[in-house]
Specification:
The protein is α+β, with helices and mostly antiparallel strands. Helix content is 52%, strand content 16%. A three-stranded antiparallel beta sheet has the order 1-3-2. A hairpin with a 2-residue loop joins strand 2 and strand 3 (42-46). The longest helix is centred in the C-terminal third of the chain and has 15 residues, at 47-61. It is globular.
Length: 62
């Protein structure tokens, strides 16, 4: 049984999914509230990291 690798999203795609601006997304990355990797100098965010961020935010407001 193989596990599919998480989809890697661009900053623009994350901006769209979270309805946030570019500066805010990079701030979340800088403060390590949103996990990201660099692929040949391009910032990519696993879709699992976006879902984990959303779950964490929902837990904080509950």
């Amino acid at each position: 049984m193989t596990t599919a690798a998480p989809e890697l999203l661009t900053v623009s795609e994350v901006m769209s999914r979270l309805k946030l601006g570019r500066t805010k997304v990079y701030d979340l990355i800088r403060t390590r509230r949103l996990v990201s990797i660099k692929v040949d100098g391009c910032r990519r965010i696993p879709d699992t990291a976006v879902r984990a961020f959303i779950r964490g935010q929902m837990g904080e407001t509950a």
